[in-house]
Specification:
Length: 185
């Protein structure tokens, strides 16, 4: 597999994490902190690197099981997080820093890297260099998410208090999209 294909594949699997990074960046408007953006990008990048290696190691032995359930796991995680964000968007809040706790970022990182797990299984079939591929996925996702969180903060001023509700809706749609792609395609 050539470098161009690896970069394009890496950009593709980073898009779900980038969407969430934009949303989380929107929640930081007026108080953008690079440490939060770096932590979030590191979580997403790390999982985008680990999950394809796990998928690769599972290889052909469990590919049917992974393929049978990956979309359901991603759907339920994203729907649950999205519904939680919608609920939180309706609650009265005091102005404070958005939540970038590991307990918040962990399920988001898992949900956005399920496709990378399945991709790792595919890479095993292609006998691809998993170290190069996973490293590229991790690095590209880190960079894309860092930029996306900064951009999210920049555009949030136009969306005011609707950022969290929009984020919840986006996550639910991402979950539905993943489920529909696997069930109907």
């Amino acid at each position: 597999m050539g470098l161009t294909n690896i970069v394009l594949m890496s950009l593709g699997v980073s898009m779900d994490a980038a969407a969430i990074s934009v949303i989380k960046g929107m929640s930081m408007c007026g108080m953008f902190r690079w440490k939060h953006a770096l932590k979030m990008a590191a979580f997403f990048g790390l999982f985008q690197g680990i999950m394809p290696m796990m998928g690769y190691s599972l290889g052909t032995n469990f590919s049917e099981l992974i393929h049978a359930w990956d979309h359901w796991i991603a759907f339920f995680l994203l729907a649950w997080i999205g519904i939680s964000m919608l609920r939180e968007s309706r609650e009265e809040k005091t102005q404070g820093e958005p939540d970038f706790a590991s307990a918040v970022l962990f399920p988001l990182a898992i949900a956005t890297s399920i496709d990378a797990l399945a991709l790792g299984v595919s890479l095993a079939f292609l006998h691809a260099n998993i170290i190069v591929s996973a490293g590229m996925m991790a690095g590209v996702t880190f960079a894309v998410c860092l930029l996306a969180s900064w951009l999210g903060c920049r555009v949030q001023g136009r969306l005011a208090n609707r950022a969290e509700a929009a984020g919840g809706i986006v996550l639910i749609f991402l979950g539905v999209k993943i489920l529909a792609e696997h069930l109907f395609m």
